[in-house]
Amino acid sequence: MRYELSASHPQHVVIVGGGFSGTLTAVHLLREAAPDQVRITLIEQHPRVARGLAYRIWDDSMLLNVPAGNMSALADEPGHFLEYCRDIDPAFNEGSFVPRRLFGDYLEHTLHLAARASPTPLTRLRAQAAAIRRSEASSAMEVTLADGSVLLASQVVLALGHLGAQPLRFADALADSGRYIGNPWDYAAMDHIPAGQPVVVLGTGHTAIDALFRLTSRDEERKVFLLSRRGLLPKGHRTLPQAPATTAFPSYLAGLPATTFAYLRAIRRQIRIRQQQGYNWRDVINALRPHTPEIWRRLPDRERRRFLARVGPWWDIHRHRLAPSAYRRLRGMLQSGQAEVVAGKVQEMQAGGQGVQVRLQPRAGGEVRELEAAVVVNCTGPDYDISRLTASPLVTQLRNEGYLRADPQRIGLELDERYRVIDRGGERVPGLHYVGPMLRARYWEAIAVPELRRHTQTLARHLLEPQG
User: On the CB side of 418, how many CA atoms lie within 13 Å of its CA?
Assistant: First the structure.
């Protein structure tokens, strides 16, 4: 079946992915489109939109890592989310860290209100996009669904979110053992691990902390090893966090050589100065937030690679922090010994007997250490390298047919300034756009709500401009 373009609505925007980025792109189109200018189809394979991985968790112990006062979906209405929260519980304030489930409800509610108030038609389609190609008969894009149906679109937005975990070198050795969980968001599988049995979690970032909390929430005696090469854990927010101040580009970074370590030395020096004035290192990091895309733009490829290899892990734990209560919960589990951070490089994993044996070389040196666990969970983080991604048949098709090109650092997609994807030959693809976490290839700071809400709004405005 083919769904043709309509003469009464000459633009048909198809958004593939109904998580945060796809939902917000639809919201901004609904809010800003003129009557009869466009119609929208939002494709999402799950029953409800506005959830994505982060907000599909029906566990209110899982909190947002950003305070409510900075989580508005609408950049021009900074109190929008807080007002929604206060309608539920007046005790919420701008510094509250609320359940992620509540934010998913809010996004769904925001889309509902925008659709009800807008004359622009919105179709929500529960389906899976299998392929996207340029039509041979016209300038339209063809979106083929898993059931064989074809949508013709003036413009397509890829809003695919996180596409899977990074591949694990030792996964093949565990694949058929039933003792390896490759999807770090598969909480149902975690819930079936027998009580009292230890677990090795590969990774020490936010995904790993989520897994730790889930693994222990129903089994307070379970031992969990958090294993990564450096053993770095996210820092915590202050109990009374402050919204980042809007400032000009920092003067202490002006005129520096465009190198990773020149910027790093200047930032460290600024932190020392601010701490002597009674401020917190978080104030410096927060003030940098609006300017990190510009810093990233200035760095040549070799310096970007140096940043990712040498500085990126330390930047992440300071920049992406835990809610105060989550941080306190984590510290308590470490102090009690229920959780243990192990820094080292895995040498071997083998399934046998009643579990998995993990051999590793400790980062601090010394003898090889062996860990025994019932299950290994891969929480090494999302994989952004489209050259090896296999979790998404759609991305595989677009990559193999040359519609997409990875950036030199393999952390996202190459795009132009209007969010149009760049193809294998280096040319922009008219009518095919991207918004989501793989914007980090161009902007670096592009995986959190305060940044993505701006990108979705800017993209929507580009989509509504005359095409040519």
Answer: 16
3-state SS, residue 327 = helix
Domain match, 396 and 451 both = yes
Does 243 map to a domain?
no
State whether 148 and 178 are in the same domain.
Answer: no
How would you write the pLDDT of the chain (468 residues) with one tens digit per residue?
A: 454 555 455 799 999 999 999 999 999 999 999 999 999 999 999 888 887 777 777 778 889 999 999 999 999 999 999 999 999 999 999 999 999 999 999 999 999 999 999 999 999 999 999 999 999 888 899 999 999 999 999 999 999 988 777 878 887 788 778 899 998 888 899 999 999 999 999 999 999 999 999 999 988 899 999 999 999 999 999 876 666 666 789 999 999 999 999 999 999 999 999 999 999 999 999 999 889 999 999 999 999 999 999 999 999 999 999 999 999 999 999 999 999 999 999 999 999 878 999 999 999 888 999 999 999 999 998 888 998 877 789 999 999 999 999 999 999 999 999 999 999 999 999 999 999 999 999 999 888 888 999 999 999 999 999 875
Give yes or no: residues 43 and 121 share one domain: yes
Q: Are residues 401 and 271 in the same domain?
A: no
Beta strands in 45-172 (DSSP E): 122-126, 129-134, 141-145, 150-153, 155-158
> At 200, which CATH number?
3.50.50.60
CA distance 231 to 360: 13
- My answer on whether 120 and 19 are in the same domain is yes
